[in-house]
UniProtKB/TrEMBL annotation:
Organism: Actinocatenispora rupis
Mode of membrane association: Multi-pass membrane protein
Gene Ontology CC entries for this record: plasma membrane
CDD domains in alphabetical order: TM_PBP2
Family: Belongs to the binding-protein-dependent transport system permease family.
The protein, known as: Amino acid ABC transporter permease
Keywords of this entry: Cell membrane, Membrane, Transmembrane, Transmembrane helix, Transport
């Protein structure tokens, strides 16, 4: 108990207490300013009812689902696997260069990455407009969701690539050679030989990147949630409601809803993992 006490104290201080405090604020009409700041009112489930009937919350939820599905479940998963598969048989210097470039996007601080993307997408002198010959194109204004999806794929693919590289390394080469000997094409080899060995890695990777992307705040630094709430994912919506709007009680209720959604996602993937083990 003496050895685990420091860890338990840290967990209680930085995880358990904030979660309980969020639950407490969620049942209050608690604002950063005004009469509700000095004397918060108990509203019970009122904040949750307001959230579930708020069109802006529904819009943020749909955007978050699209953001997670396109950038994490599809984008990072597929691109990370393709990079790992191509690099498996590539020359060592090619693997080194690609690994360095992809990892650089992952280890750079989020603020630095956002600054680079703003320079890339700038409508006046942006690099992308110069390459495409489209001066004046405002990518973050005209295509905000596509912008944050591409940004998240570029930034997060490295993790999937590293995980799939380790997973593919565990696939016996003898089975791959046997499949080629019997005339199996790439798709059939992938379905019958590779996927049965890496299915657990696929589920684990999808679980992690789904949860990370669902709670990602970086899109706010790139688009600010705009224009017209078209890139306002749930973490951004919570920030703009709680901090910018001052409605801490309402924002806490939305945070708890996000926590429940995260738990549901985690339980779904863990159930799939247990079914695979069984």
């Amino acid at each position: 108990m003496l050895f685990v006490a420091p860890a338990l104290a840290l967990i209680a201080a930085f995880l358990v207490f904030p979660a309980l405090w969020t639950l407490y604020l969620g049942v209050l009409k608690y604002d950063l300013a005004g009469s509700n700041a000095a004397a918060p009112q108990f509203v019970g489930l009122g904040n949750y009812r307001d959230a579930l009937t708020d069109p802006r919350f529904a819009n943020s939820l749909l955007l978050t689902v699209a953001f997670v599905g396109l950038s994490a479940v599809l984008g990072q998963n597929v691109l990370g696997f393709l990079l790992a598969a191509v690099l498996r048989d590539a020359a060592s210097w090619v693997r080194g260069v690609v690994n360095a470039v992809v990892l650089l996007a992952w280890i750079l601080p989020g603020t630095v990455v956002v600054f680079l993307w703003q320079a890339l997408l700038d409508r006046g002198g942006g690099t992308l407009n110069a390459l495409l010959g489209t001066p004046g194109a405002a990518w973050t204004l005209d295509h905000p969701l596509a912008t944050i999806v591409a940004f998240n794929i570029w930034r997060g693919t490295a993790f999937s690539m590293l995980l799939y590289s380790a997973a593919l390394g565990a696939v016996p080469r003898s089975q791959l050679e046997t499949a080629r000997t019997y005339g199996a094409g790439p798709l059939r080899t992938l379905r019958d030989v590779v996927l049965p060995h890496i299915r657990g890695h696929v589920l684990t990777n999808t679980l992690l990147i789904t949860l990370w992307t669902f709670n990602d705040f970086a899109p706010y630094m790139l688009t600010g949630g705009g224009p017209d709430h078209r890139s306002e994912t749930l973490p951004v919506y919570v920030y703009r409601t709680s901090i910018e709007g001052g409605a801490l009680g309402y924002g806490s209720a939305i945070s708890l809803i996000m926590l429940i959604v995260n738990l549901a996602i985690a339980l779904f993937y863990l159930r799939l993992l247990r079914r695979r083990s069984a």
